[in-house]
């Protein structure tokens, strides 16, 4: 669930707000009748306002449902790949493994433990015949366990995932992923390669991937084969090897309930192991999976909520705009009721009740649409996440929605609407009674009141004082917000010295300039996983740009003055089209902000996608340095012979170089100090002098070039290399560590750790990530071969290699051949360039998904323009009647309304597009998120023009109805009545 800690305060705040509304409705019958009468009279406008509010609520709930879906999807891994397994103990092969199993048997009597299960496992491969030829799967885990004990493993009455009788000799039980990969079912024949030797089996049955039937040694997708009792031991003896000894421990409680006992049980396990604990890996996989689920759900939910924040702002502005227009339309009426004794508080209550009714009527439709949006995002995200898979190990997206998220979203939507309505009601209730009755325009004084002047000046000084250390320390939100607030609060004081137009222009230009230039002055402000900085940046840019443009409209229209002054029907329509936007600057500005905000973010996402596409070739070159394949294999079978076989085997003609890599699993501290918990790492040892071409985005001072980093890595065992995503758990990439920073790398088997110094940060570390479906939170740490052996000892084994291919050799075709030739070694060949391009394509698709989500906000903006035009027709009814009586044709009136809509929409589209391109360019120059993307900054003209054209067309369609109604107004009737 998303933000469970917010449920209580949001519920309390909503309950207080609703209680206040009930009191107002019950105790102020005049305010109630005024509110409900207006609601019933203007049904078209009410429907449009409710529609805008529905979209605002839907955006919030949709974002929270996306978080629920990802959280639930990651948690399903605990059910699929772990079930009742809470702790996993992997012991060395041989007598020590059997000793570990014996020591852990006593845990079965612990009140915190529901069961202990010993198993034997090895990495294997499988092949099955088919009509098109043999189907091979190199990623198989072969298990030998007691099926009777396995069926009883875990809580009483719980499903362990394994049941039924054990397979008989010559038979094997396979899980669903392996059966699907091989295309086999019960009764089919397969061949398992155990310790390098082929063993034929008949499939006894296929079991669902659940609990023990989906268990593995750290992978997200496990293809399991369960062999008959003693079969794995016999195959190991025949090969002169030993299988791994694995002990599973189930804590008291259900699949998720037992997680609370993990720290205590893990400590008991280490105590039971005694001296053997130094050579045994004690893992807590379920605790890791559940923690990752919470982080992943919160991260993606926050990302969509950040994107949706711009739509939420647009929705709030829609409500503000509507009520400002209502206030102007009812100005005479409000003046009369005030003149006969109605208090201003009662007038505020009337408007607030009316607005609250709109918000409440939009609540249930908003929830339904929000859940539907979340479902749509989940369907598309499932396809995108499959593109980020390694060996088919992508996260499986399963739609989910929790009552907590729905209630949180509903409460947020209603509270935002109530706050916007109340603030606007208070503002529009301040007017001169006589001027309101006579319908005279407001004439604000030049100088503000003394109390406002003093308070605003104090606030301006305080914000300026806070801004200085915030900017100096590159605090993201405060760097943007404090200088802007200081300038805004300084406006009343500046009005004492300068004309209003000059003050508005200077302040708006200063805020806009600072918003755009802050990343240049303080480039580290984007080094944060928080999304709020992007919302603040976008909102400040949009609001300041719109204020600047709105206050200088006449100057901007000078180039088209001759067009407007033409003595023709089109010239007249054009003058009418710009007259009202210039006269009603607030409503025009509010509509412009809605357009600018949404188009700004859509263009920004379009540009980021373009940067990714333009930079993919450079990333491939930097990441591969000429290597075409990454090979991962079973070191227990392949040993040191695999490299020689590749160099002299059937495919040797297509291979130029094979660089073996040492591999081990370990843990490390976070050099960026984002967390205190150890991070899971894939330690990689590079042979001295074997690699020199893979590039770095940052190097330790004093190292002149990239080869110098690799030489330093070989010469000094203190040095390690990491990539830019080390320790990342989602959110924007940042620059959290630099060469020279330290981290402690630990061998989990021995507990021995060493402090390492980062000598370089890779431009792209793709070639060093495990290619066999490891957890998404496993990060590579690259070190020299000698340093690797010194720290990890016998755990460091040659289990992967990088391959350079010859001219004319297809990496994809070579990968297929090598997997067939080395099937017995469980070799997995990954074409590096294809994998990188595939992941870039998936990232681009993800940005398109966010653009689709943001299209809801564009709907709010277009709805806002439609509402403005509907209200404008009613407001200008008498004026239109007079113009028609003077001889204006209906098509001139219709054209004027359409052109007015086009004028406002065009300004918003242009402003949003320019700000989006400019902001992305500044981020590209200075943000660590774009480091390594050297394809240049492309302006995505086609995408931007397509977005602009679609937005423009939708805006005209939203105005077509009001324009036709305006043209159909009968002059004689319009000039005589106001309704």
Structural overview:
With 979 residues, this protein is α+β, with helices and mostly antiparallel strands. Helix content is 56%, strand content 14%. It contains 32 helices and 19 strands. The strands form two sheets. Strands 10, 11, 12, 13, 14, 15, 16, 17, 18 and 19 form a ten-stranded mixed beta sheet that branches. A hairpin with a 6-residue loop joins strand 2 and strand 3. Helix 14 (450-472) packs antiparallel against helix 15 (476-489). The longest helix has 45 residues, at 285-329. The two termini are 50 Å apart.
Please give a quick description of this structure.
This protein has 32 helices and 19 strands.
- Strand tally, please? 19
Helix content: 55-70%
Mean pLDDT: 84
Structural class: alpha+beta
How are the secondary structure elements laid out?
Elements: H1 7-27, H2 29-41, H3 43-81, E1 87-91, H4 95-104, E2 113-128, E3 135-145, H5 147-151, E4 171-175, H6 176-182, E5 189-194, E6 197-207, E7 224-226, H7 231-239, E8 244-251, H8 262-273, E9 281-283, H9 285-329, H10 331-339, H11 344-387, H12 403-428, H13 433-437, H14 450-472, H15 476-489, H16 491-495, H17 500-521, H18 532-550, H19 553-556, H20 561-564, H21 569-583, H22 585-624, E10 629-632, H23 635-638, H24 641-648, E11 655-668, E12 679-686, E13 696-699, H25 706-715, E14 719-723, E15 742-746, E16 753-762, E17 778-784, H26 785-792, E18 797-805, H27 811-821, E19 828-831, H28 832-875, H29 877-885, H30 890-926, H31 941-967, H32 971-974
Parallel strand pairs: 3-7, 4-6, 12-17, 14-16
Antiparallel strand pairs: 1-8, 1-9, 2-3, 2-5, 2-8, 4-7, 5-6, 10-18, 10-19, 11-12, 11-15, 11-18, 13-16, 15-16
């Amino acid at each position: 669930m998303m933000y469970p800690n917010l449920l209580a305060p949001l519920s309390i705040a909503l309950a207080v707000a609703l209680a206040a509304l009930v009191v107002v409705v019950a105790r102020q019958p005049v305010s109630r009748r005024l509110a409900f009468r207006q609601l019933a009279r203007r049904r078209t406008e009410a429907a449009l306002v409710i529609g805008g509010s529905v979209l605002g609520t839907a955006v919030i709930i949709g974002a929270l449902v996306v978080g629920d879906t990802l959280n639930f999807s990651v948690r399903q891994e605990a059910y699929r790949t772990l079930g009742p397994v809470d702790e996993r103990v992997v012991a060395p092969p041989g007598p020590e493994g059997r000793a570990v199993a014996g020591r852990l048997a006593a845990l079965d009597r612990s009140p915190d433990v529901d069961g202990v299960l010993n198993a034997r496992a090895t990495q294997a491969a499988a092949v099955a015949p088919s009509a098109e030829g043999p189907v091979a799967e190199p990623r198989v885990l072969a298990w030998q366990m007691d099926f009777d004990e396995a069926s009883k493993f875990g809580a009483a009455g719980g499903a362990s995932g394994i049941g039924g009788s054990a397979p008989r000799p010559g038979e094997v039980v396979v899980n669903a992923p392996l059966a699907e990969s091989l295309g086999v079912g019960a009764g089919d024949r397969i061949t398992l390669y155990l310790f390098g030797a082929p063993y034929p089996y008949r499939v006894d049955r296929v079991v669902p991937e659940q609990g023990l039937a989906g268990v593995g040694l750290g992978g997200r997708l496990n293809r399991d084969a369960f062999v008959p009792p003693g079969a794995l031991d016999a195959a190991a003896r025949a090969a002169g090897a030993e299988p791994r000894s694995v002990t599973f421990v189930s804590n008291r409680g259900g699949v998720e309930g037992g997680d609370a006992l993990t720290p205590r049980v893990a400590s008991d396990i280490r105590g039971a192991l005694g001296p053997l604990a130094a050579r045994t890996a004690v893992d807590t996989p379920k605790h890791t999976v559940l923690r990752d689920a919470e982080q992943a759900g919160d991260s993606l939910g926050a990302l969509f909520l950040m994107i949706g924040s711009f739509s939420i702002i647009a929705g709030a502005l829609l409500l503000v705009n509507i009520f400002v227009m209502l206030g102007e339309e009812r100005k005479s009426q409000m003046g009369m009721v005030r003149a006969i004794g109605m208090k201003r508080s009662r007038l505020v209550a009337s408007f607030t009740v009316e607005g609250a009714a709109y918000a409440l009527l939009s609540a249930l439709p908003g929830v339904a649409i929000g859940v539907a949006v979340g479902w749509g995002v989940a369907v598309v995200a499932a396809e995108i996440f499959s593109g980020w898979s390694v060996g088919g190990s992508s996260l499986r997206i399963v739609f989910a929605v929790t009552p907590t998220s729905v209630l949180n979203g509903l409460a947020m939507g209603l509270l935002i609407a109530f706050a916007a309505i109340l603030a606007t009601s208070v503002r529009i209730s301040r007017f001169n009674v006589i001027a309101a009755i006579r319908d005279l325009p407001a004439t604000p004084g030049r100088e503000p009141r003394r109390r406002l002047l003093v308070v605003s000046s104090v606030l301006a000084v305080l914000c300026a004082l806070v801004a200085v250390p915030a900017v100096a320390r590159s605090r993201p939100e405060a760097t943007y917000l404090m200088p802007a607030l200081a300038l805004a609060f300084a406006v009343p004081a500046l009005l004492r010295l300068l004309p209003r137009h000059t003050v508005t222009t200077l302040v708006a230009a200063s805020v806009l300039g600072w918003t755009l230039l802050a990343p240049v002055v303080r480039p580290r402000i984007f080094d944060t996983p928080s999304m709020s900085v992007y919302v603040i940046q976008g909102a400040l840019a949009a609001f300041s740009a719109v204020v600047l443009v709105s206050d200088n409209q006449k100057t901007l229209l000078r180039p088209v003055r001759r067009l407007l002054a033409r003595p023709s029907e089109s010239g007249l329509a054009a003058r009418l089209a710009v007259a009202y936007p210039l006269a009603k600057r607030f409503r025009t500005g509010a509509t412009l902000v809605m357009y600018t905000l949404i188009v700004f973010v859509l263009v920004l996402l379009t540009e980021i996608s373009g940067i990714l596409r333009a930079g993919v070739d450079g990333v491939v070159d930097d990441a591969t340095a000429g290597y075409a394949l990454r090979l991962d294999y079973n070191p227990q079978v392949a040993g040191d012979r695999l490299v020689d076989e590749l160099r002299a085997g059937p495919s040797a003609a297509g291979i130029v170089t094979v660089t073996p890599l040492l591999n081990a699993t370990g843990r490390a501290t976070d050099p960026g100090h984002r967390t205190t918990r150890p991070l899971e790492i894939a330690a990689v040892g590079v042979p001295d002098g074997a690699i020199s071409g893979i590039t770095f985005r940052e190097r330790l001072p004093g190292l002149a070039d990239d080869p110098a980093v690799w030489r330093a890595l070989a010469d000094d065992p203190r040095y390690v290399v990491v990539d830019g995503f080390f320790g990342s758990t989602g959110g924007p990439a940042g620059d959290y560590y630099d060469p020279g920073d330290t981290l402690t790398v630990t061998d989990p088997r021995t507990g021995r750790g060493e402090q390492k110094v980062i000598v370089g940060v890779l431009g792209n570390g793709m070639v060093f990530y495990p290619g066999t479906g490891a957890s998404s939170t496993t990060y590579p740490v690259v070190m020299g071969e000698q340093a690797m052996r010194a720290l990890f000892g016998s755990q460091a084994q040659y289990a992967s290699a990088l391959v350079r291919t010859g001219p004319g050799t297809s990496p994809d075709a070579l990968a297929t051949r090598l997997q067939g030739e080395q099937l017995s070694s469980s070799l997995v060949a990954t074409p590096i360039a294809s994998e990188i391009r595939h992941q870039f394509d998936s990232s681009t698709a993800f940005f398109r998904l966010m653009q689709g989500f943001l299209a809801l906000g564009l709907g709010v903006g277009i709805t806002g323009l439609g509402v403005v035009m509907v209200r404008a027709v009613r407001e200008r009814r008498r004026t239109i009647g007079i113009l028609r009586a003077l001889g204006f044709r209906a098509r001139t009136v219709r054209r004027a309304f359409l052109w007015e809509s086009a004028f406002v929409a065009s300004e918003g589209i242009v402003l949003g597009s320019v700000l989006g391109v400019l902001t992305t360019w500044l981020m590209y120059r200075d943000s660590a998120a774009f480091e390594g993307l050297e394809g240049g900054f492309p302006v995505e003209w086609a995408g931007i023009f397509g977005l602009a054209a679609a937005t423009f067309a939708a805006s005209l369609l939203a105005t077509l109805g009001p324009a036709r109604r305006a043209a159909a107004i009968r002059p004689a009737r319009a000039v005589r009545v106001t309704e």
